[in-house]
Amino acid sequence: MSTDFYQSPLSERYSSREMQYLFSQDKKFGTWRRLWVALAETEQELGLPITDEQIAEMKAHQDDINYDVAKEREKVVRHDVMSHVYAYGVQCPKAKPIIHLGATSCYVGDNTDIIVMTEALRLVKKKLVNVIAQLADFALEYKDLPTLAFTHFQPAQPTTVGKRATLWAQDFLMDLEDVDYVLSTMKLLGCKGTTGTQASFLELFDGDQEKIDRIDPMIAEKMGFSSCVAVSGQTYSRKTDTRVLNVLAGIAASAHKMSNDIRLLQHLKEVEEPFEKSQIGSSAMAYKRNPMRSERIASLSRYVLCDALNPAVTSSCQWFERTLDDSANKRLSVPEGFLTVDGILDLCLNVTDGLKVYPKVIEKHLMEELPFMATENIMMDAVKAGGDRQELHERIRELSMEAGRTVKEEGKPNNLLELIAADPSFNLSLEDLKKSMEPSRYIGRSKEQVERFVTDVVRPVLEENQEMLGVKAEINV
To answer: Per residue in 375-414, is it b (16+ CB within 10 Å) or e — as a string?
Structure first.
Protein backbone atom coordinates (compact mmCIF):
# COMPACT_ATOMS: atom_id res chain seq x y z
CA MET A 1 0.00 0.00 0.00
CA SER A 2 1.31 3.43 -0.93
CA THR A 3 1.88 5.67 2.08
CA ASP A 4 3.22 8.84 0.46
CA PHE A 5 -0.06 10.74 -0.02
CA TYR A 6 -3.03 11.83 2.08
CA GLN A 7 -5.77 9.30 2.75
CA SER A 8 -8.95 10.27 4.52
CA PRO A 9 -9.37 8.82 8.04
CA LEU A 10 -13.03 8.36 7.13
CA SER A 11 -12.10 5.48 4.84
CA GLU A 12 -9.06 4.26 6.79
CA ARG A 13 -10.48 4.32 10.31
CA TYR A 14 -14.12 5.20 10.69
CA SER A 15 -16.57 4.33 7.92
CA SER A 16 -17.78 0.86 6.94
CA ARG A 17 -16.96 -0.77 3.60
CA GLU A 18 -20.68 -0.79 2.80
CA MET A 19 -20.96 3.00 3.07
CA GLN A 20 -17.63 3.55 1.33
CA TYR A 21 -18.86 1.55 -1.66
CA LEU A 22 -21.89 3.82 -2.06
CA PHE A 23 -19.56 6.79 -2.58
CA SER A 24 -17.01 4.87 -4.64
CA GLN A 25 -16.02 5.46 -8.25
CA ASP A 26 -17.52 2.11 -9.24
CA LYS A 27 -20.91 3.05 -7.78
CA LYS A 28 -20.85 6.53 -9.30
CA PHE A 29 -19.83 5.70 -12.84
CA GLY A 30 -21.72 2.40 -12.88
CA THR A 31 -24.86 4.39 -12.05
CA TRP A 32 -24.06 6.89 -14.81
CA ARG A 33 -24.03 4.04 -17.29
CA ARG A 34 -27.29 2.61 -15.98
CA LEU A 35 -28.86 6.03 -16.40
CA TRP A 36 -27.60 6.21 -19.98
CA VAL A 37 -29.13 2.78 -20.64
CA ALA A 38 -32.43 3.90 -19.06
CA LEU A 39 -32.45 7.00 -21.26
CA ALA A 40 -31.73 5.03 -24.41
CA GLU A 41 -34.42 2.45 -23.58
CA THR A 42 -36.95 5.22 -22.88
CA GLU A 43 -36.16 7.04 -26.11
CA GLN A 44 -36.43 3.77 -28.05
CA GLU A 45 -39.78 2.93 -26.44
CA LEU A 46 -41.06 6.40 -27.34
CA GLY A 47 -40.16 5.93 -31.00
CA LEU A 48 -36.61 7.17 -31.60
CA PRO A 49 -34.54 5.01 -34.01
CA ILE A 50 -32.42 3.27 -31.36
CA THR A 51 -31.79 -0.43 -31.94
CA ASP A 52 -31.88 -3.38 -29.56
CA GLU A 53 -28.31 -4.07 -30.60
CA GLN A 54 -27.17 -0.65 -29.42
CA ILE A 55 -28.87 -1.07 -26.03
CA ALA A 56 -27.49 -4.59 -25.62
CA GLU A 57 -23.99 -3.28 -26.33
CA MET A 58 -24.41 -0.59 -23.67
CA LYS A 59 -25.68 -3.10 -21.11
CA ALA A 60 -22.75 -5.40 -21.83
CA HIS A 61 -20.32 -2.68 -20.73
CA GLN A 62 -22.23 -1.21 -17.78
CA ASP A 63 -19.73 -2.43 -15.20
CA ASP A 64 -16.38 -2.84 -16.97
CA ILE A 65 -15.57 0.86 -16.86
CA ASN A 66 -12.46 1.85 -18.81
CA TYR A 67 -11.18 4.38 -16.29
CA ASP A 68 -7.86 4.84 -18.04
CA VAL A 69 -9.55 6.05 -21.25
CA ALA A 70 -11.85 8.41 -19.33
CA LYS A 71 -8.97 9.83 -17.31
CA GLU A 72 -6.84 10.54 -20.37
CA ARG A 73 -9.80 12.10 -22.18
CA GLU A 74 -10.57 14.40 -19.22
CA LYS A 75 -7.03 15.81 -19.42
CA VAL A 76 -7.92 16.96 -22.94
CA VAL A 77 -11.53 18.15 -22.60
CA ARG A 78 -11.60 19.11 -18.88
CA HIS A 79 -15.11 17.72 -18.52
CA ASP A 80 -15.81 14.60 -16.47
CA VAL A 81 -19.15 13.68 -18.04
CA MET A 82 -18.01 14.08 -21.62
CA SER A 83 -14.89 12.08 -20.79
CA HIS A 84 -17.04 9.17 -19.66
CA VAL A 85 -19.41 9.55 -22.62
CA TYR A 86 -16.32 9.21 -24.81
CA ALA A 87 -14.96 6.23 -22.86
CA TYR A 88 -18.34 4.45 -23.01
CA GLY A 89 -18.47 5.11 -26.75
CA VAL A 90 -15.02 3.53 -27.20
CA GLN A 91 -16.41 0.31 -25.69
CA CYS A 92 -19.75 0.62 -27.50
CA PRO A 93 -19.01 1.72 -31.08
CA LYS A 94 -22.49 0.83 -32.32
CA ALA A 95 -24.20 2.76 -29.50
CA LYS A 96 -21.76 5.67 -29.57
CA PRO A 97 -24.03 7.97 -31.63
CA ILE A 98 -26.96 7.72 -29.19
CA ILE A 99 -25.23 7.70 -25.77
CA HIS A 100 -26.37 10.75 -23.72
CA LEU A 101 -28.80 11.74 -26.52
CA GLY A 102 -30.75 14.89 -25.56
CA ALA A 103 -29.27 14.99 -22.06
CA THR A 104 -27.05 17.41 -20.16
CA SER A 105 -24.33 16.54 -17.65
CA CYS A 106 -26.69 16.82 -14.70
CA TYR A 107 -28.77 14.00 -16.09
CA VAL A 108 -26.13 11.54 -14.92
CA GLY A 109 -24.48 13.67 -12.21
CA ASP A 110 -27.56 14.82 -10.30
CA ASN A 111 -29.64 11.69 -10.73
CA THR A 112 -26.70 9.64 -9.47
CA ASP A 113 -26.33 11.92 -6.45
CA ILE A 114 -29.99 11.38 -5.56
CA ILE A 115 -29.71 7.61 -6.04
CA VAL A 116 -26.57 7.38 -3.89
CA MET A 117 -27.94 9.62 -1.13
CA THR A 118 -31.14 7.57 -1.05
CA GLU A 119 -29.27 4.30 -0.68
CA ALA A 120 -26.96 5.86 1.91
CA LEU A 121 -29.96 7.09 3.91
CA ARG A 122 -31.35 3.55 3.90
CA LEU A 123 -28.06 2.25 5.32
CA VAL A 124 -28.12 5.00 7.95
CA LYS A 125 -31.69 4.02 8.79
CA LYS A 126 -30.76 0.36 9.20
CA LYS A 127 -28.01 1.16 11.68
CA LEU A 128 -30.17 3.72 13.49
CA VAL A 129 -32.95 1.16 13.97
CA ASN A 130 -30.45 -1.25 15.54
CA VAL A 131 -29.08 1.40 17.92
CA ILE A 132 -32.66 2.04 19.07
CA ALA A 133 -33.26 -1.70 19.50
CA GLN A 134 -30.15 -2.11 21.65
CA LEU A 135 -31.03 0.89 23.79
CA ALA A 136 -34.53 -0.53 24.30
CA ASP A 137 -33.08 -3.84 25.50
CA PHE A 138 -30.71 -2.00 27.85
CA ALA A 139 -33.55 0.15 29.20
CA LEU A 140 -35.68 -2.89 29.97
CA GLU A 141 -32.80 -4.69 31.67
CA TYR A 142 -32.18 -1.78 34.04
CA LYS A 143 -35.70 -0.33 34.19
CA ASP A 144 -35.89 -0.58 37.99
CA LEU A 145 -32.25 0.01 39.01
CA PRO A 146 -32.37 3.28 40.98
CA THR A 147 -29.68 5.85 40.25
CA LEU A 148 -29.09 9.48 40.99
CA ALA A 149 -30.55 11.77 38.40
CA PHE A 150 -28.73 15.01 37.66
CA THR A 151 -29.94 18.48 36.80
CA HIS A 152 -27.10 20.91 36.09
CA PHE A 153 -24.91 17.86 36.88
CA GLN A 154 -25.99 18.31 40.51
CA PRO A 155 -27.64 15.38 42.33
CA ALA A 156 -31.40 15.41 41.85
CA GLN A 157 -34.41 13.18 42.55
CA PRO A 158 -33.53 9.58 41.60
CA THR A 159 -34.41 8.00 38.28
CA THR A 160 -33.39 4.55 37.00
CA VAL A 161 -30.56 3.51 34.73
CA GLY A 162 -33.11 2.20 32.24
CA LYS A 163 -35.22 5.37 32.29
CA ARG A 164 -32.15 7.43 31.44
CA ALA A 165 -31.48 5.18 28.42
CA THR A 166 -35.01 5.84 27.13
CA LEU A 167 -34.07 9.52 26.80
CA TRP A 168 -31.23 8.57 24.45
CA ALA A 169 -33.52 6.23 22.51
CA GLN A 170 -36.21 8.88 22.19
CA ASP A 171 -33.77 11.30 20.53
CA PHE A 172 -32.76 8.62 18.03
CA LEU A 173 -36.43 7.84 17.35
CA MET A 174 -36.95 11.48 16.40
CA ASP A 175 -34.02 11.16 14.03
CA LEU A 176 -35.56 8.03 12.54
CA GLU A 177 -38.79 9.93 11.88
CA ASP A 178 -36.76 12.58 10.06
CA VAL A 179 -34.90 9.94 8.01
CA ASP A 180 -38.19 8.33 6.99
CA TYR A 181 -39.64 11.70 6.00
CA VAL A 182 -36.65 12.69 3.89
CA LEU A 183 -36.57 9.26 2.23
CA SER A 184 -40.25 9.72 1.32
CA THR A 185 -39.41 13.00 -0.45
CA MET A 186 -36.42 11.85 -2.53
CA LYS A 187 -37.14 12.34 -6.23
CA LEU A 188 -34.91 12.06 -9.27
CA LEU A 189 -34.07 15.10 -11.37
CA GLY A 190 -35.16 13.22 -14.48
CA CYS A 191 -34.02 14.42 -17.91
CA LYS A 192 -34.85 18.09 -18.32
CA GLY A 193 -32.00 19.47 -20.42
CA THR A 194 -29.62 22.36 -20.00
CA THR A 195 -31.93 24.81 -18.20
CA GLY A 196 -34.73 22.46 -17.22
CA THR A 197 -37.01 23.26 -20.16
CA GLN A 198 -36.62 19.94 -22.05
CA ALA A 199 -36.02 21.98 -25.22
CA SER A 200 -33.76 19.27 -26.67
CA PHE A 201 -36.61 16.78 -26.51
CA LEU A 202 -38.94 19.10 -28.41
CA GLU A 203 -36.45 18.72 -31.25
CA LEU A 204 -35.95 14.96 -30.84
CA PHE A 205 -39.67 14.19 -30.68
CA ASP A 206 -40.84 16.83 -33.19
CA GLY A 207 -42.78 18.72 -30.54
CA ASP A 208 -44.81 15.69 -29.34
CA GLN A 209 -45.74 16.92 -25.84
CA GLU A 210 -47.37 13.65 -24.82
CA LYS A 211 -44.19 11.67 -25.46
CA ILE A 212 -42.04 14.25 -23.69
CA ASP A 213 -44.32 14.08 -20.63
CA ARG A 214 -43.63 10.35 -20.41
CA ILE A 215 -39.82 10.60 -20.37
CA ASP A 216 -39.29 11.41 -16.68
CA PRO A 217 -41.82 8.89 -15.28
CA MET A 218 -40.34 6.13 -17.45
CA ILE A 219 -36.77 6.90 -16.36
CA ALA A 220 -37.84 7.09 -12.71
CA GLU A 221 -39.50 3.67 -12.90
CA LYS A 222 -36.45 2.10 -14.55
CA MET A 223 -34.21 3.49 -11.78
CA GLY A 224 -36.49 2.36 -8.94
CA PHE A 225 -38.05 5.73 -8.04
CA SER A 226 -41.69 6.75 -7.95
CA SER A 227 -41.23 10.16 -9.54
CA CYS A 228 -38.99 13.01 -10.65
CA VAL A 229 -39.15 16.64 -9.53
CA ALA A 230 -41.87 18.57 -11.34
CA VAL A 231 -39.65 21.50 -12.29
CA SER A 232 -35.96 22.29 -12.16
CA GLY A 233 -33.23 24.44 -13.58
CA GLN A 234 -30.28 22.49 -14.83
CA THR A 235 -29.95 20.81 -11.41
CA TYR A 236 -32.23 19.52 -8.70
CA SER A 237 -32.67 22.11 -5.96
CA ARG A 238 -29.62 22.10 -3.70
CA LYS A 239 -32.02 22.44 -0.78
CA THR A 240 -32.32 18.66 -1.12
CA ASP A 241 -28.71 18.32 0.02
CA THR A 242 -29.43 20.73 2.87
CA ARG A 243 -32.38 18.64 3.99
CA VAL A 244 -30.36 15.43 3.87
CA LEU A 245 -27.35 16.82 5.75
CA ASN A 246 -29.62 18.35 8.40
CA VAL A 247 -30.96 14.86 9.14
CA LEU A 248 -27.41 13.57 9.48
CA ALA A 249 -26.60 16.48 11.80
CA GLY A 250 -29.62 15.55 13.94
CA ILE A 251 -28.28 12.01 14.34
CA ALA A 252 -24.87 13.42 15.23
CA ALA A 253 -26.41 15.65 17.90
CA SER A 254 -28.26 12.71 19.47
CA ALA A 255 -25.15 10.57 19.45
CA HIS A 256 -23.07 13.40 20.92
CA LYS A 257 -25.53 13.87 23.79
CA MET A 258 -25.54 10.15 24.60
CA SER A 259 -21.77 9.90 24.40
CA ASN A 260 -21.35 12.86 26.74
CA ASP A 261 -23.64 11.23 29.31
CA ILE A 262 -21.68 7.98 29.08
CA ARG A 263 -18.36 9.81 29.48
CA LEU A 264 -19.64 11.53 32.62
CA LEU A 265 -21.02 8.26 34.01
CA GLN A 266 -17.70 6.55 33.30
CA HIS A 267 -15.96 9.26 35.31
CA LEU A 268 -18.34 8.41 38.17
CA LYS A 269 -17.53 4.70 37.64
CA GLU A 270 -21.26 3.94 37.36
CA VAL A 271 -21.42 2.92 33.69
CA GLU A 272 -18.56 2.01 31.37
CA GLU A 273 -18.23 1.58 27.63
CA PRO A 274 -16.66 -1.63 26.26
CA PHE A 275 -12.95 -2.04 26.99
CA GLU A 276 -10.98 -4.93 25.48
CA LYS A 277 -8.60 -7.06 27.53
CA SER A 278 -5.49 -5.75 25.74
CA GLN A 279 -6.73 -2.21 25.13
CA ILE A 280 -4.39 0.59 26.28
CA GLY A 281 -6.01 3.65 27.80
CA SER A 282 -2.92 5.85 28.13
CA SER A 283 0.69 5.67 26.96
CA ALA A 284 1.86 6.97 30.35
CA MET A 285 -0.84 5.99 32.85
CA ALA A 286 -1.24 2.24 32.49
CA TYR A 287 -4.25 2.08 34.80
CA LYS A 288 -6.40 4.40 32.65
CA ARG A 289 -9.68 3.20 31.10
CA ASN A 290 -10.50 6.16 28.92
CA PRO A 291 -13.93 6.31 27.19
CA MET A 292 -12.27 6.29 23.77
CA ARG A 293 -15.35 5.22 21.82
CA SER A 294 -17.65 7.81 23.37
CA GLU A 295 -15.03 10.51 22.90
CA ARG A 296 -14.74 9.55 19.23
CA ILE A 297 -18.51 9.73 18.85
CA ALA A 298 -18.43 13.27 20.22
CA SER A 299 -15.47 14.24 18.04
CA LEU A 300 -16.98 12.92 14.80
CA SER A 301 -20.39 14.35 15.68
CA ARG A 302 -19.00 17.85 15.93
CA TYR A 303 -17.60 17.42 12.41
CA VAL A 304 -21.05 16.52 11.02
CA LEU A 305 -22.73 19.40 12.84
CA CYS A 306 -20.32 21.82 11.16
CA ASP A 307 -20.43 20.01 7.80
CA ALA A 308 -24.20 20.52 7.59
CA LEU A 309 -23.55 24.23 6.99
CA ASN A 310 -21.96 23.48 3.61
CA PRO A 311 -25.11 22.46 1.68
CA ALA A 312 -27.08 25.27 3.30
CA VAL A 313 -24.61 27.88 2.06
CA THR A 314 -24.32 26.16 -1.33
CA SER A 315 -28.09 26.10 -1.89
CA SER A 316 -28.30 29.81 -1.09
CA CYS A 317 -25.55 30.62 -3.63
CA GLN A 318 -26.97 28.96 -6.74
CA TRP A 319 -27.64 31.68 -9.33
CA PHE A 320 -30.72 31.33 -11.51
CA GLU A 321 -30.77 27.95 -13.31
CA ARG A 322 -27.34 26.89 -11.94
CA THR A 323 -23.74 27.79 -11.18
CA LEU A 324 -20.84 25.38 -10.82
CA ASP A 325 -19.63 26.57 -7.43
CA ASP A 326 -21.65 23.74 -5.89
CA SER A 327 -19.68 20.91 -7.50
CA ALA A 328 -16.40 20.89 -5.59
CA ASN A 329 -18.18 21.50 -2.30
CA LYS A 330 -20.72 18.71 -2.90
CA ARG A 331 -17.95 16.23 -3.69
CA LEU A 332 -16.64 16.77 -0.16
CA SER A 333 -19.54 17.72 2.10
CA VAL A 334 -22.14 15.13 1.13
CA PRO A 335 -19.95 11.99 1.08
CA GLU A 336 -18.07 13.05 4.20
CA GLY A 337 -21.33 13.72 6.04
CA PHE A 338 -22.53 10.20 5.29
CA LEU A 339 -19.19 8.49 5.91
CA THR A 340 -18.86 10.25 9.26
CA VAL A 341 -22.40 9.45 10.43
CA ASP A 342 -21.82 5.85 9.36
CA GLY A 343 -18.76 5.74 11.62
CA ILE A 344 -20.71 7.38 14.44
CA LEU A 345 -23.52 4.83 14.22
CA ASP A 346 -21.05 1.92 14.17
CA LEU A 347 -19.55 3.31 17.37
CA CYS A 348 -23.03 3.72 18.88
CA LEU A 349 -23.84 0.12 17.99
CA ASN A 350 -20.60 -1.06 19.58
CA VAL A 351 -21.05 0.99 22.75
CA THR A 352 -24.74 0.25 23.39
CA ASP A 353 -24.14 -3.45 22.79
CA GLY A 354 -21.49 -3.63 25.52
CA LEU A 355 -22.32 -1.06 28.20
CA LYS A 356 -21.14 -2.24 31.61
CA VAL A 357 -23.18 -1.16 34.64
CA TYR A 358 -21.80 -1.11 38.20
CA PRO A 359 -24.80 -1.32 40.59
CA LYS A 360 -22.72 -1.16 43.78
CA VAL A 361 -21.10 2.13 42.79
CA ILE A 362 -24.47 3.48 41.69
CA GLU A 363 -25.97 2.49 45.05
CA LYS A 364 -23.09 4.06 46.97
CA HIS A 365 -23.51 7.39 45.22
CA LEU A 366 -27.26 7.27 45.62
CA MET A 367 -27.13 6.48 49.35
CA GLU A 368 -24.72 9.37 49.92
CA GLU A 369 -27.33 11.80 48.59
CA LEU A 370 -30.59 10.03 49.44
CA PRO A 371 -31.04 11.59 52.90
CA PHE A 372 -31.41 14.96 51.16
CA MET A 373 -33.88 13.48 48.64
CA ALA A 374 -35.89 11.88 51.46
CA THR A 375 -36.44 15.04 53.48
CA GLU A 376 -39.97 15.62 52.18
CA ASN A 377 -41.02 12.08 53.15
CA ILE A 378 -39.29 12.47 56.54
CA MET A 379 -41.13 15.74 57.12
CA MET A 380 -44.47 14.08 56.32
CA ASP A 381 -43.73 11.25 58.76
CA ALA A 382 -42.85 13.80 61.44
CA VAL A 383 -46.12 15.65 60.86
CA LYS A 384 -47.98 12.37 61.29
CA ALA A 385 -46.12 11.98 64.59
CA GLY A 386 -47.54 15.31 65.80
CA GLY A 387 -45.11 17.90 64.42
CA ASP A 388 -45.81 21.33 62.86
CA ARG A 389 -45.19 21.29 59.12
CA GLN A 390 -43.92 24.88 58.85
CA GLU A 391 -41.56 24.58 61.82
CA LEU A 392 -40.30 21.21 60.62
CA HIS A 393 -39.63 22.60 57.12
CA GLU A 394 -37.39 25.34 58.51
CA ARG A 395 -35.63 22.96 60.88
CA ILE A 396 -34.95 20.38 58.16
CA ARG A 397 -33.57 23.15 55.93
CA GLU A 398 -31.14 24.18 58.65
CA LEU A 399 -30.04 20.61 59.34
CA SER A 400 -29.58 19.94 55.59
CA MET A 401 -27.24 22.95 55.34
CA GLU A 402 -25.28 21.68 58.36
CA ALA A 403 -24.98 18.18 56.88
CA GLY A 404 -23.87 19.66 53.57
CA ARG A 405 -21.09 21.60 55.29
CA THR A 406 -19.95 18.41 57.04
CA VAL A 407 -19.66 16.62 53.69
CA LYS A 408 -17.99 19.47 51.78
CA GLU A 409 -15.75 21.10 54.39
CA GLU A 410 -14.79 18.12 56.53
CA GLY A 411 -14.98 15.35 53.93
CA LYS A 412 -17.11 13.25 56.26
CA PRO A 413 -20.16 11.09 55.38
CA ASN A 414 -23.60 12.64 55.12
CA ASN A 415 -24.93 12.75 58.71
CA LEU A 416 -28.33 14.31 58.05
CA LEU A 417 -30.23 11.33 59.40
CA GLU A 418 -28.26 11.44 62.66
CA LEU A 419 -28.93 15.17 63.01
CA ILE A 420 -32.67 14.68 62.46
CA ALA A 421 -32.82 11.77 64.92
CA ALA A 422 -31.12 13.91 67.55
CA ASP A 423 -33.65 16.73 67.13
CA PRO A 424 -36.67 16.18 69.42
CA SER A 425 -38.98 18.26 67.22
CA PHE A 426 -39.09 15.40 64.70
CA ASN A 427 -39.87 12.68 67.24
CA LEU A 428 -38.28 10.05 64.92
CA SER A 429 -35.60 7.52 65.81
CA LEU A 430 -32.59 6.76 63.62
CA GLU A 431 -34.11 3.34 62.96
CA ASP A 432 -37.35 4.96 61.83
CA LEU A 433 -35.42 7.27 59.52
CA LYS A 434 -33.38 4.50 57.95
CA LYS A 435 -36.59 2.74 56.96
CA SER A 436 -37.24 5.64 54.61
CA MET A 437 -33.92 5.07 52.84
CA GLU A 438 -35.25 2.53 50.35
CA PRO A 439 -34.22 3.92 46.91
CA SER A 440 -37.17 2.38 45.05
CA ARG A 441 -39.48 4.72 46.99
CA TYR A 442 -38.03 7.71 45.16
CA ILE A 443 -37.92 6.69 41.49
CA GLY A 444 -41.51 7.63 40.76
CA ARG A 445 -42.92 5.84 37.71
CA SER A 446 -39.54 5.25 36.07
CA LYS A 447 -40.05 1.47 35.76
CA GLU A 448 -43.56 1.84 34.35
CA GLN A 449 -42.47 4.62 31.99
CA VAL A 450 -39.73 2.41 30.55
CA GLU A 451 -42.16 -0.47 30.01
CA ARG A 452 -44.76 1.75 28.36
CA PHE A 453 -42.18 3.51 26.19
CA VAL A 454 -40.70 0.27 24.89
CA THR A 455 -44.09 -1.39 24.40
CA ASP A 456 -46.03 1.53 22.92
CA VAL A 457 -43.34 3.51 21.13
CA VAL A 458 -40.28 1.41 20.34
CA ARG A 459 -41.74 -2.03 19.61
CA PRO A 460 -44.07 -0.85 16.79
CA VAL A 461 -41.08 0.84 15.11
CA LEU A 462 -38.93 -2.29 15.44
CA GLU A 463 -41.72 -4.51 14.13
CA GLU A 464 -42.19 -2.20 11.14
CA ASN A 465 -38.46 -2.45 10.40
CA GLN A 466 -37.95 -6.05 11.48
CA GLU A 467 -35.99 -6.97 8.36
CA MET A 468 -33.29 -4.45 9.37
CA LEU A 469 -32.62 -5.90 12.82
CA GLY A 470 -29.56 -7.94 13.76
CA VAL A 471 -26.83 -5.52 12.67
CA LYS A 472 -23.66 -5.56 14.76
CA ALA A 473 -20.62 -3.36 14.25
CA GLU A 474 -16.90 -3.72 14.74
CA ILE A 475 -14.82 -0.59 15.07
CA ASN A 476 -11.60 -0.48 13.12
CA VAL A 477 -9.32 1.18 15.66
So the answer is: beebbebbeeeebeeeebeebbeebbeebeebbeeeeeeb
In 3D, which of 16, 258, 252 has the Cα closest to residue 134?
258
Give the 3-state secondary structure of the chain.
Answer: CCCCCCCCHHHHHHCCHHHHHHCCHHHHHHHHHHHHHHHHHHHHHCCCCCCHHHHHHHHHCCCCCCHHHHHHHHHHHCCHHHHHHHHHHHHCCCCHHHCCCCCCHHHHHHHHHHHHHHHHHHHHHHHHHHHHHHHHHHHHHCCCCEEEEEECCEEEEEEEHHHHHHHHHHHHHHHHHHHHHHHHHCCECCCCCCCCCCHHHHHHCCCCHHHHHHHHHHHHHHCCCCCECCCCCCCCCCHHHHHHHHHHHHHHHHHHHHHHHHHHHHHHCCEECCCCCCCCCCCCCCCCCCCHHHHHHHHHHHHHHHHCHHHHHHHHCCCCCCCHHHHHHHHHHHHHHHHHHHHHHHHHHHHHHCCEECHHHHHHHHHHHHHHHCHHHHHHHHHHCCCCHHHHHHHHHHHHHHHHHHHHHHCCCCCHHHHHHCCCCCCCCHHHHHHCCCHHHHCCCHHHHHHHHHHHHHHHHHHHCHHHCCCCCCCCC
Query: For the residues 306-331, what does the mean pLDDT come to?
Result: 95
Model confidence over 240-260: pLDDT tens digits?
A: 999 999 999 999 999 999 999
pLDDT value, residue 286 = 44
- For the whole model, what pTM was predicted? 0.93
Give the residue among 305, 287, 297 at the shortest CA–CA distance from 263. Answer: 297
- Catalytic machinery residues: 152, 282
Under the banding of pLDDT at 50, 70 and 90, the label for residue 1 is low
pLDDT digits (tens, 9 = 90+) for 269-317: 999 998 764 454 544 454 457 899 999 999 999 999 999 999 999 999 9
